[in-house]
Design a protein that fits this description.
Elements (H helix, E strand, L loop, with lengths): L1 H27 L4 H12 L7 H17 L3 H14 L3 H17 L3 H11 L9 H17 L3 H12 L5 H17 L6 H13 L3 H17 L3 H9 L2 H7 L2 H17 L3 H15 L5 H17 L3 H66 L4 H30 L9 H18 L3 E8 L2 H8 L1 H15 L8 E6 L2 E7 L3 H16 L14 E7 H4 L3 H17 L5 E3 L7 H15 L16
Parallel strand pairs: 4-5
Antiparallel strand pairs: 1-3, 1-4, 2-3
Helix pairs in contact: 1-2, 1-3, 2-3, 3-4, 3-5, 4-5, 5-6, 5-7, 6-7, 6-17, 7-8, 7-9, 8-9, 9-10, 9-11, 10-11, 11-12, 11-13, 11-14, 12-14, 13-14, 14-15, 14-16, 15-16, 16-17, 17-18, 20-21
């Protein structure tokens, strides 16, 4: 009895000692990695008698240490295994938030967003406010990176309303400033300075550097460059000491632009070179665009055409890379959102199939009982079977329609459009007939979502589909490829007919009355046309050609139609394409100069 009385307190003390070690390692995991390593070694010998929650916490600490020591692949493997095995909501929340963070660092934004979908629904089950705030701030930062600034601001403000600790309050203020800049909303100088003071008081130079950048960008849009230059330059030394290449590149590029505006050409050149030196290993595409533009404009001011041409080529290459980077991040959000909608549809389909099975089971039971009834009951049973067969057939037709159409617009989805278009192209090739592919993308559509919300964007997409459908013949294929991008395959028509159809569609877009629905924006699109005469009858080739022509239309000013021709990205080919469209459409087109290649928002 004495031995039993001594054993129980020893077990309790061991568990309490392990909890104390876990708490200490959690507190020190970003400030004293060596001490954390020692604590992890000590805890490894105590796991035999640990609870499930304690084991999960130790695994999370071990994965975090892998992340901070550059072993991201091992950290992902450990966290993924933990997420699939643990049932504790707190552990699942922290694990998913860490995975979302490491995926975002690796620029695997689709995986990061999927982790957010796992984490956010269980946030309210996390009692530790500091842990909950860290997870919500991961979500806010990721949403800013993929261009969903309104969502980012919502989560950051949610953290601020919950009386966060100093570091989380600092991070939330910076995220809100970035989100407001992203959607073109101005914040007050007081809020900006308050956010900066909060981060500096917490000794967070990285967050402080980003806050200064956000303030400087707003002041630049307000023509307050004279104030932005000393404010941003005053924190440069702290930014350099962080050794964070991305932040250094962004700060240096912003200082280069501000110094150039102030006429300080030597400083502008120096900052631009420093920005480029820090940008390549940090995926700082925006910093490269700004730095090369400053170098190009400085060379033009020096009347050095050779240097200006070289800088301009680097500038356009950087701008395209930055545009592709932005589009890939935004597309990641659209893909995950679309997959979520598809998953919801599949769940609904399974529910309907289950209902169908229940109905069929009822029919079978009714048929079995009918053998015991009189002829009148048998007649009723036959009628019932007919009724359920009719219901089954209607259900099958409904399921078939749901797999072939886009849930939002009611037109072909991407997969069914590809099947119909491929079959039509094969028939045209056999018959020796031409075919044309028209692809169009709505201009400035992201601004509609940002300013008016996704409900307005969905309404606009439905209006676009309804406007184009009357222009399609029975043999044409019209579908939504994704987001705000649509395509039409026109068997038997050449490029000139396709251009006229695109013009009719453009006119219908302009006639859509958004004010009647409670909004206030205009709808227009950039069209790209590709025909089998240039690309053959392969759908993939026609899609690629039409996409290139559509991109040329975007660069040429949007709200126009471009026909694919080899070399359409070249300046001379752009002019030739515009002249060709003048002859086809019979409308005056003025080309003063070929616009420079730039990112399309």
């Amino acid at each position: 009895m004495l031995l039993l009385g001594l054993a129980c307190p020893t077990h309790v003390l061991a568990s309490e000692e392990l909890d104390a070690l876990i708490d200490e390692a959690t507190t020190l995991r970003t400030s004293d990695p060596k001490r954390v390593d020692a604590l992890l070694d000590q805890m490894s010998g105590m796991l035999a008698g640990a609870t499930t929650i304690q084991r999960d916490q130790v695994r999370i600490l071990r994965a975090h240490r892998m992340m901070t020591s550059g072993q991201s692949a091992r950290a992902i493997e450990e966290l993924t295994d933990l997420l699939s095995s643990t049932t504790d909501p707190v552990a699942r929340f922290e694990t998913a938030s860490m995975l979302a963070n490491v995926y975002a660092v690796q620029r695997r934004f689709e995986d990061s967003l999927r982790m957010l979908e796992t984490m956010l629904p269980i946030a309210e089950q996390v009692g530790d406010a500091q842990l909950r705030h860290r997870g919500l701030m991961v979500a806010a930062i990721v949403y800013n990176q993929v261009g969903e600034f309104r969502l980012a601001r919502q989560y950051a403000e949610r953290v601020l309303r919950d009386d966060p600790a100093g570091r989380n309050a600092c991070a939330a203020g910076g995220v809100i400033l970035e989100a407001m800049n992203g959607i073109g909303q101005h914040f007050t100088d007081g809020f900006g300075q308050e956010s900066l003071a909060r981060c500096e008081s917490q000794g967070e130079p990285i967050f402080s550097g980003f806050v200064r950048l956000h303030i400087a960008r707003q002041w630049e849009t307000q023509n307050r460059q004279a104030e932005a230059l000393p404010m941003l330059g005053g924190g440069l030394a702290d930014v350099e000491r962080t050794g964070y290449p991305f932040l250094i590149a962004q700060t240096r590029a912003a200082l280069a632009a501000l110094a150039q505006h102030a006429g300080r050409r030597t400083a502008a050149r120096m900052h631009a070179e420093a920005a480029l030196a820090n940008s390549h290993d940090a995926n700082a595409t925006e910093a490269r665009v700004t730095a090369h533009r400053v170098q190009y404009e400085l060379a033009m001011a020096d009347h050095d055409p050779v240097a200006a041409l070289a800088a301009y080529r680097l500038y356009t290459d950087a701008e395209r890379a930055h545009f592709n980077d932005i589009k890939s991040r935004e597309m990641a959000y659209q893909v995950v959102r679309h997959q979520s909608l598809q998953q919801a549809q599949q769940i609904e389909l399974l529910h309907q199939k289950n209902q169908l099975l229940v109905l069929q089971q009822n029919v079978t039971e009714q048929r079995a009982r009918s053998w015991l009834l009189l002829a009148l009951v048998l007649v009723g049973l036959v009628a019932s079977v007919g009724y359920w067969a009719y219901k089954t057939k209607r259900m099958q037709l409904k399921l078939k329609r749901m797999t072939e159409t886009d849930a939002l617009t009611g037109i072909f989805n991407r997969q069914h459009f590809a099947e119909r278009a491929t079959a039509a192209l094969l028939q045209c090739e056999r018959d020796g007939l031409p075919a044309t592919l028209v692809m169009f993308d709505l201009d400035h559509f992201k601004q509609v979502n940002d300013r008016h919300g996704h409900a307005a964007g969905d309404w606009a997409l439905r209006q676009i589909a309804e406007a184009v459908q009357p222009l399609c013949r029975g043999m044409d294929a019209f579908g939504r490829l994704g987001g705000e991008e649509f395509a039409m395959l026109l068997p038997g028509l050449d490029a000139s007919a396709a251009v006229r159809l695109a013009g009719d569609a453009q006119a219908r877009f302009a006639a859509i009355d958004t004010a009647a629905a409670g909004y206030g924006f205009r709808l227009a699109a950039s069209f790209g046309v590709a025909e089998t005469r240039q690309g053959g009858y392969a759908l993939a080739t026609l899609l690629s050609h039409a996409d290139q022509a559509m991109y040329a239309a975007k660069r040429g000013g949007r709200r126009q139609v471009r026909v694919y021709a080899p070399g359409i990205d070249d300046a001379n080919a752009v002019v030739e394409t515009i002249e060709l469209l003048r002859e086809i459409v019979r409308e005056p087109v003025t080309v003063d100069e070929v616009p420079p290649r730039r990112a399309i928002a």
